[in-house]
Design a protein that fits this description.
- By secondary structure, the chain is an alpha/beta fold.
- Helices cover 36% and strands 24% of the residues.
- The strands form three sheets. The protein has an eight-stranded mixed β-sheet with strand order 5-6-8-7-9-12-11-10, with helices on both faces. It has a two-stranded antiparallel sheet with strand order 1-4.
- A hairpin with a 2-residue loop joins strand 2 (14-16) and strand 3 (19-21).
- The radius of gyration is 16 Å and the shape is globular.
């Protein structure tokens, strides 16, 4: 499957014959389908059912984050209500949200989205969806290939708080959490209840982990 090339340029995403060219990236041009931008409402649809939403906002304190929505229907054109919710909750927690990437329930697509975010240097990647028990729920499997170290405490805390809140998909989620390079990667279940509860549990833990990773980088 041919993947479009994305480069960051001044916070704008511009489609250019089979790939997208933004024009300012923190380091190198990234091969893939990253969303490195800033909350306007611009949305660009790419081949293979991948959607990138461009977002713009003031600088934040907690770090840079990217949201990956894993959902077949959204990837093929249905409205995305989950991405804006996760972005709003991240903003409230003090994160700069680089963007929202929507991919189908395909292990390669999910893995590429996560890898691209890590290469792009974000501090936190939150994926939503694809954590259940059906054959199409492949997010944890793709995530396992990306992680250097798993953080069981975070995934267990998300399941525990989800069950306590009555969110069965969160409580039964196969979602993983861990570190890839200097990026924290976390899988959330796909329901809005799971997202709200999961983000409330995750954000203080993420801030602690990001702080530790930043001190190692320094």
């Amino acid at each position: 499957m041919k993947r479009p090339r994305i480069v960051r340029d001044g916070g704008h995403l511009t489609p250019i014959v089979g790939h997208i060219e933004p024009s300012r990236m923190n380091s190198d041009a990234v091969e893939g389908f990253a969303a490195m931008a800033s909350v306007g409402q611009m949305e660009t649809r790419l081949e293979a059912g991948i959607t990138v939403s461009d977002m713009t906002m003031d600088a934040a304190v907690a770090g840079r984050a990217l949201v990956v929505i894993v959902d077949d229907r959204t990837a093929h054109g249905d409205a995305d209500s989950t991405g804006p919710l996760v972005s709003e909750l991240l903003l409230e927690a003090g994160f700069l949200v680089d963007g929202v990437v929507v991919v189908s329930n395909d292990e390669i697509d999910v893995r590429n989205a996560l890898n691209t975010a890590v290469i792009g240097g974000v501090d936190l990647v939150v994926s939503v969806g694809g954590t259940g028990t059906s054959p199409r729920d492949v997010t944890p499997d793709a995530t396992a290939e990306v992680l250097d170290r798993e953080l069981l405490g975070i995934s267990e805390a998300l399941r525990s708080s989800g069950l306590a809140a009555g969110s069965l998909d969160a409580g039964l989620s196969r979602g993983l959490a861990g570190v890839s390079g200097s990026t924290l990667v976390v899988n959330l279940a796909g329901s809005r209840a799971a997202v709200r509860d999961g983000m409330a549990t995750l954000t203080p833990l993420a801030a602690h982990v990001i702080g530790e990773l930043s001190s190692l980088d320094g």
